[in-house]
Amino acid sequence: MKRILIPILLLPFLMVPRSYGSDIEVRLEALEKIIQEQQGIIEKQQQEINELKARTGMNKESNVAESATTSPKQKESGGPLKVQVKDLAYPTTPIEQKYSERLKALEIYSFPQGKLIPDISFIVDGSFIGRGMNDESYRRLTVPDFIPSGLSGSNRGFNLNYGEMALYAPVDPYFDLAAVIPFSESGVELEEAYFRTKMLPWGLQLKAGKFRSSFGRLNVQHRHVWDFADAPLINRAFFGEDGLAEKGVHLNWLAPTPFYLLLGGEILQGENTASFGTSSLSLQKNGLTFSKDSAPGPNLFLGFLKSSVDIGSLSLLGGFSLAQGQSRQSLSVGSGTQAAYGDAKIYGFDLTAKYFIDSYRYLSWQNEFMFRQRRLNVGYDPAPDDLTQNLSIYGKDLNQSGLYSQLVYRFAERWRTGIRYDLLSQNDVYINSVTQSRPGDLNRISAMLEFKPTEFSTLRLQFNRDNSLFDGDRREPVNSIFLQFNMAIGAHRAHAY
User: Fold this and answer.
1) Are 125 and 484 in contact (CB under 8 A)?
2) Which of the residues 204, 217, 224, 328 could staple to 277 if both were Cys, CB 3.0 to 4.6 A apart?
């Protein structure tokens, strides 16, 4: 009896390992089945990848040709060059969605930490300047009624012109954020800081913050992409040394036309003192007061139209711009002080023709014409410390215009040369409706030779013959030589064509 009872009692314990082993076998079979299914998925995806690679190989030459011949309008509006790594974080194409869904199904999650780090670049610009006049005498010079308060700019000898840090990154699927921070020996400023939309309907795009205005051709460009070391006379006279960079909003519309057509407008604060300004004014002397409250912001309104067409190897770009706002100006004129307020309008026309000779040689002809109309009330104190001389108050109307025309030839892979002609052509001034005599033929001629070892470095030699400058009533032609270097490090966005 005991012999029978003992095996019966041990039977459950003997069956446990067998049952446990059966469970393991079932789980192993299930895992093997899952692995086989995943291997099938991987093989199918690998087949799709191979097919895409084959198609890419077939179209490689055409893609390269398309990239090399991308038209200016595509570059400005973000044509084939607009595909960016940032877009992969938000799948939009079927294959991106498919692969992302596979990862989610397998519960594999990955967060791109690199997306938190913006593109950062730093640019350094320096120069050696030789000038046929000492710095003190040079800064006394003026361009009559265009730059009436004396010149600014670099000194003779060695100069560290500026360092510029640029930051750029996508914020999310809807916005990009950019900032440009120039450094100089005198301090730091915030030249640009703005967001730009990516997904507005109907071809619209919005930009808001502080940015370089889209007036004309050159103003929107940063200094390190200019073809010459300094700005044209007309840009400097109408917008100042740093150009028209304002706080405000910008809205443009890319028209659905077979050629590039961009229309836009800007509402800006209007603090640029070269032509506009918002500060309050006040002159008082011997019981007489000349004053004006600050202009309420926003004060400057701007509209523009830009277009481009390609004719074989020739690209034509043109545009029209209009800026209108109130004007406030306070400046020193000789030993006196002048304050003025009123209204200002600036019209601008630009045309650029660029002919591509081959893959790296080209000939570029760039032109801009601007016309400024100002209606001002002026208060002038000829001698602030002399109570025997009273304030002069009068009306002043100015019709002024000018242009620049430059021809640049890239004759080798790393070499360019160019010539530029500046002309302040019209300087009609009326005081209390009486025509004033003003000097004409305010011109400057510049020539440059540039060597670019790579796209990140530039060495430039430039000569200027400036016939627009006056010391009082006497014209003072000035010759200048620039030896400039410009170096860039870091990830920097491509500039407009």
Assistant:
1) yes
2) 328
Residue 121 to residue 123: CA distance in whole angstroms: 7
Does the structure show a pLDDT above 80 at 102? no
DSSP string, 344-399: EEEEEEEEEEEEE-SSS-EEEEEEEEEEEEEEEEEEEES-TT-TTS--EEEEEEEE
The model's pLDDT over 350-376, given as tens digits with 9 standing for 90+, comes to 999 999 999 899 999 999 999 999 999
DSSP assignments along 29-92, one per residue: HHHHHHHHHHHHHHHHHHHHHHHHHHHHHHTHHHHHHHHHT--HHHHHHT-GGG--GGGGGS--
Q: Which two tokens stand for residue 467?
A: 């016939």
Residues 6+ apart with CB under 8 A from 142: 148, 149, 150, 151, 469, 470
CA 49 to CA 239: how far, in whole Å?
54
The whole-model pTM stands at 0.75
352, 367 Cβ separation under 8 angstroms: yes
At 430 the three-state DSSP class reads: strand
Asked whether 255 and 262 are in contact (CB, 8 A), the reply is yes
Spatial separation of the C-alpha atoms in residues 492 and 176, rounded to whole Å? 14
- For residue 113, the SS3 value is helix
What stretch of H or E contains 139?
A: helix 135-140
First-residue to last-residue Cα distance in the chain: 103
- Number of Cβ within 10 Å of residue 132's Cβ equals 12
Contact 162, 186 (CB under 8 A): no
Judge contact between 429 and 404, C-beta under 8 A.
no
Instruction: Give the Cα-Cα-Cα angle 35, 37, 43 (nearest 5 degrees).
Output: 100
| Exposure string over 200-238, b if 16+ CB within 10 A, otherwise e | eeeeebebbbbbbbbbbbbbbebbbeebbbbbbbbbbbb
Q: 115-162 pLDDT, tens per residue?
A: 578 999 999 999 999 998 999 999 889 998 998 877 877 889 999 999
Cα-based distances in Å from 24 to 30, 47, 156? 10, 34, 86
